[in-house]
Amino acid sequence: MHPILTPPTPAARRAPDLLDGLKDLVTAVAGVILTFIMLEQASWFGLPWQVRQVIGLALLAAIPAMLLIALPLKTLKLGCGRDALMPFAIVHAVAIIVSVPALLGPGLPTVLMTFVPPIGALLLVVLNIALGLAVWWPAFLVARVTGRRRPALLLAAAVFAALAIPPGLASRLVAEREAAPLRAGDVAGRLEGAAPNRLEIAVTSVAERGSPQPFRDARCDTLCEGLLRSGQVDRLRITWQAPDAPPRSIIYAAGAPETCRAGRPCVATVEEADWAPSPRLSVTETTLPGPRVGDRRGSRLVTRFEVTLPDDGGDRLVARSTMVRAAVVTMPVLVDYNWVDHQTAVVGVSRLHRVMNPIEMRDLLVNTLGYAVPPDQRPS
């Protein structure tokens, strides 16, 4: 009889060492950071700013992609024992420790974003990573109890949606509700008959960066020039009221063709001692404080357009339209540097400007006053 040969017992398989994976992950992240800093210090090798911006955003996006997606998925795949959770906990703890300086006050973020923008951007990325990794902890607990990964992933997605989406929706609803009383007095009227051949445009601006400032400092822009050169308007008076300054009024007429030059308005100023009463298009900007005292990020910019006609008893209102611009929370919610006065960067929930009832001066010129606003016809 031949003896029965039994196969040798295979050596015990070595458990996956997540510390090795963590080392690879940290090496990859460090490589991305080092590449970003080197490219920044080398002025991106003379590349156009559009290309530099795309490369920089791609490199910064690689870091949260590695930490927020690769590491948790690898941990769930290999199990939820102590050996699997320890590297994840280490990364999360390091992210929290590194992001603490961003929460200490506006001093450090302002210095970083002013003098060392790459480091300031990386600090912001780390802070978002620290918050994003917290979403995975309930998933790990579910996976450890049930031993199944799919419910854990679904829970992580649900927790992320519950934390990231509702604040943005609520912020938009609040902005719409606060804008409703400001628009309660709007009137949608239209001037009867032919469009007037004389028009006054009066602008009162708060001079806020990024806000619409048509005809700044009473200068005639392309819209003003188009009305004059098309022959629809013989004289156009622009009155511009800047903050803490007296108003300026200038009367314009179409310039002679031989005086037109490329890149310059083809208009001429006219001296008229007495300006006859004429239809007026007024643009008034007002900044309203936010609902919370001292919260300059929550302020609202109200731009009100009014068309009035001279009447025996005073100006008669023909149309009024109110546009409100408010800062709302982004969707999904992120942590970002908010420049409250264009000099101080405060770390907080990221916001973007949302415009309620978007309207332009061109809309009232066409829909209320009946002009056919021509395109830009300046010589090139």
Strand order of the largest sheet: 4-3-2-1-5-6-7-10
| Number of E-type strands | 10
Oligomer: single chain
* Biggest pleated sheet: 8 strands, mixed
- Gyration radius, to the nearest Å? 31 Å
What gross morphology would you assign?
elongated
* Number of H- or I-type helical stretches: 10
Average pLDDT across residues? 77
> Which strand-content bin applies to the residues?
15-25%
* Class from helix and strand fractions: alpha+beta
- What separation lies between the terminal Cα atoms? 105 Å
- Would you identify the regions where 5 or more consecutive residues have pLDDT less than 50? 9-14
What is the string of SSEs from the N terminus onward?
HHHHHHHHEHEEEEEEEEEH
> Helix fraction?
40-55%
Question: Can you summarize this structure?
Answer:
With 380 residues, the chain is α+β, with helices and mostly antiparallel strands.
Word description of this protein:
It is a single chain. With 380 residues, the protein is of the alpha+beta class. The protein contains ten helices and ten strands. Strand 1 (198-204), helix 9 and strand 2 (235-241) form a beta-alpha-beta unit. The model is unreliable at 9-14 (pLDDT under 50). 41% of the residues lie in helices and 19% in strands. It is elongated. The N and C termini lie far apart (105 Å). The protein has an eight-stranded mixed beta sheet with strand order 4-3-2-1-5-6-7-10, sandwiched between helices. The protein has a two-stranded antiparallel sheet with strand order 8-9.
